[in-house]
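Reference record:
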Amino acid sequence: QLQLVESGGGLVQAGGSLRLSCAASGRISSYYNMAWFRQAPGKEREFVAKISWYGGNTYYADSVKTRFTISRDNALNTVYLQMNSLEPEDTAVYYCAATRIELGPKTFEADFPSWGQGTQVTVSS
């Protein structure tokens, strides 16, 4: 019932910045905890960042915590991922996901029942 659509991906040089957006539709998204995951070719999908429904609590994977910032605008039913100091290792398809399960320090992919189609991010050297 909840539809998620990612946008903002593209090609960027190493050291550059990109902002991803995930727009929710179908029903209000304010009460969903949201997360970003990514999947590189030949690799398993991995957790990137997550944010509580009110935006007060955020969590990051160690690989991105000093470079990425997750935020949300409930008035626009949108969650963002600001990506700075991008590296070639950040190249992947980025997915947003939603859950009503309470967030904590551990993140489980199975806890997120709603997913977007993904947006490609490519970082060149």
